[in-house]
Amino acid sequence: MASSAVARDLGADEFRAEGLSLSRGPRGLFKDLSFQLRRGEALILRGANGSGKTSLLRVLAGFTTPDAGALFWNQQCLKPLAITSRRLLFYVAHANAIKDELSALENLQDALRIDGVASAALSPATILHALDRVGLLSQRHLLARKLSQGQKRRIGLARLMLVDKPFWLLDEPTNALDAEGVELFAGIVNRHLAGGGMACIASHLTMPLQGTSSELKLRASA
Amino acid sequence: MKSAPDVALGPVQSGKGDPGEAEVAPEQGFMRAIARDTRLAFRSKGEVIQALVFFVVVVSLFPLAIGPETALLKRIAPGVVWVAALLSVLLTLPRLFASDYQDGTLEQLMLSPFPLPVMVAGKMGAHWLVSGLPLALIAPLLGLQFGLDSRELGVLVASLILGTPILSMLGAIGAALTLGVRGGSILVALLILPLYIPVLIFGAGAVETVAAGLDYGANLSLLGAGLLIGGLTTPFAVAAAVKISLD
């Protein structure tokens, strides 16, 4: 069986950040920051430019080592970039990993392959349906360099529909999206949360998220 | 055994997946990384062809410059071909990680359920397929300009096939360490060229020994040993370097 010790410990399923501190240069970005998220909950990060939203997301993803603090998944210390966190976390930032030389369809396929989605789940029908939902079906063979910023973002939305990871870390996911795209995005996140997923989203927009979502306001201290 | 994943149309219930539930076979990640990078390289053919043409032109300059002195040409041939191969591979190194670094793909690779060393090994493999292997395949043609006989040409190709993957692997360490550094490509050359010296010595040495009528096996064996050691260790070094560069 594939279910390892890790899988059996999943009972309550809670993500917890404890006492996170990070400073960049003389400025402290955040200090002694703690929060917890259960399945079905979302945390919206707010704050002015430079207040540390991206840095916090990078800490949560494990790319940046915080000055202090630790992350826990079900009371177990979550080691940065260890296999548990790599299966748990999904991270999308400003640079959305779209290759200009590939078409929309190929970009989506490649991204999902990296995300470890099983080949069986990458059937053409599934992928075309996702592209249809984000309105890129007719442009699927167009090279990404010919797509607009918003359309590139929509490839990312299609990826969100198909990726199989519980905890999403999204950095300004609605940038360059039109009103309809934002609505689509909110729908995808709601679906994810309703299915027991979790999300931490840095955004300036107010999104119509259902379920339990809390806000965290970041203010850089001097 | 794990049942077939949910392929229902529409958003997959992604929240249901528990971390630790999904099975990921490392060799699958390796194949996915190789396929992806090879396809990307063929989409920007220009860069692949440029490095190959550079190799051909540099090697061809020597017979033109030295003139028809067969004995001398034959003597310098292995060294010339190997130095040109080093420089050609060096030209292609910045491409290995730079675009993935800029567009955020490296972060995706780090959070992929496949281990990062496996994914970077795939990238190195793809790099060799498009920048090392073509050099080995075209080398016999170039060797003819220098009057190498068929036996020497065979050993030249063998030495390049064994040696150029080592160039890709060592180069990947340099490329990963200099990510985001200004003037990174010069820095890669300075960092990596000294490490290439043993490969150069054994690679060119193999052809020289066969030309001298001696046993060339030792040189090729050493290259092979280097290839094995490199294959086992460099993916971990490159993965560590990538993590440092992204912190």
Describe this protein with a few key phrases.
heterodimer, A: 222 residues, alpha/beta, Rossmann fold, five-stranded parallel sheet, 9 strands, 32% helix, 26% strand, globular, disordered N terminus, B: 247 residues, mainly alpha, elongated
How would you describe this structure to a colleague?
The complex is a heterodimer of chains A (222) and B (247). Chain A has 222 residues and is α/β, with parallel strands linked by helices. Chain A has a single domain, classed as P-loop containing nucleotide triphosphate hydrolases (Rossmann fold, 3-Layer(aba) Sandwich). Chain A has helices spanning 5-8, 53-61, 83-88, 104-114, 124-133, 149-162, 179-194; strands at 14-24, 27-38, 41-46, 68-73, 76-77, 89-92, 167-171, 198-202, 212-217. In chain A, the strands form 2 sheets. Chain A has a 5-stranded parallel β-sheet with strand order 6-7-8-3-9, with helices on both faces. In chain A, strands 2-1-4-5 form a 4-stranded antiparallel β-sheet, with helices on one face. In chain A, a hairpin with a 2-residue loop joins strand 4 (68-73) and strand 5. In chain A, helix 4 packs across helix 6 (149-162) and helix 5 packs across helix 6. The longest helix of chain A has 16 residues, at 179-194. Chain B has helices at residues 26-43, 45-66, 70-102, 105-110, 116-131, 133-145, 150-177, 184-211, 217-246. Chain B contains 9 helices and no strands. Chain B is mostly helical and 247 residues long. Chains A and B meet through helix 3, strand 6, helix 4, helix 5 and helix 7 of A and helix 1 and helix 4 of B.
Mass-distribution shape of chain A: globular
Strand order of the largest sheet of chain A: 6-7-8-3-9
What count of helical segments of chain A does DSSP give?
7
Task: Note the beta-strand portion of chain B.
Answer: under 5%
Could you tell me the strand content of chain A as a percent range?
A: 25-35%
CATH superfamily of chain A: P-loop containing nucleotide triphosphate hydrolases
Question: Which assembly state applies to the chains in this document?
Answer: heterodimer
Q: Could you give a short account of the major beta sheet of chain A?
A: 5 strands, parallel
Number of extended strands of chain A? 9
Straight-line N-to-C gap of chain A? 52 Å
Mean pLDDT over the residues of chain A: 85
Provide the low-confidence segments of chain B as ranges: 1-21
Helix content of chain A: 25-40%
Q: Tally of extended strands of chain B?
A: 0
In DSSP terms (H or I, runs of 4 or more residues), the helix count of chain B works out at: 9
Count of structural domains of chain B: 1
Looking at the structure, the CATH topology of chain A is Rossmann fold
